[in-house]
């Protein structure tokens, strides 16, 4: 009897979905489209067995292309609620493969608040679907740490940090400098000796990179003892290469300046000064 009642409820929900939602998700009024996306996300979280399927997910994927900011924003937030849990994220492999390119491209959305939420979404994907984002995908996100919007840059900084931070940080910064035309520390220090990560042409100033990482990785950037030990290492096998030393000195200097003055780089909004170093 319980099973019959559950099936009856699901049939009623499907009838409402086909009779109302399927017509209204593309309504001429943007607010109605946005509400449809918001509610669909709630249904998927609340009734996973019935609604977390590719047949329903596709509506959110399609509306990621909507011309209106509010609709795109609600789509991204609905997806955040799904990718933030491994058990729901595992049901989204087909959706991810189909719409990942669109999601990655939205880090450059014309609306900054949408772009911020997209980077947060991709960070959740990084944490809960390890194989979803390739290195090529990530290379589209790393450069965002150099944008003028601090909220967006900080979101990208968290993504870079979650991607293993020091393993990529030096190589990322070195490659940024090169393409812009510039030419015994323990486990944390060893992780600084990174492989090269190709990146597009970026701003050459370490201050922007440090500022982007400050909120999520401030303690590690202020670990000057470990950084100094790396710079003083002279072992031909364990020591840093000249390019790595130069990059690390610039990052060290930028982190000291950030810690003492608490001022963001030129062109970015005010940053909170960190007290009690």
Automatic annotation (TrEMBL):
What is the protein name given in its UniProt record? Answer: STAG3 protein
One of the record's GO cellular component terms: chromatin
One Pfam family, short name:
HEAT_SCC3-SA
Matches recorded under InterPro entries:
ARM-like (IPR011989), ARM-type_fold (IPR016024), Cohesin_Scc3/SA (IPR039662), HEAT_SCC3-SA (IPR056396), SCD (IPR020839)
PROSITE patterns according to UniProt = SCD (PS51425)
| A single MF term (Gene Ontology) | chromatin binding
Which species? Answer: Podilymbus podiceps (Pied-billed grebe)
Residue ranges of domain SCD in the record: 21-106
Query: Which keywords does this chain's UniProt record carry?
Result: Nucleus
What does the sequence similarity comment in the record state about its family? Belongs to the SCC3 family.
The biological processes this protein is annotated with in GO are: establishment of meiotic sister chromatid cohesion
Q: Which domain of life is it from?
A: Eukaryota
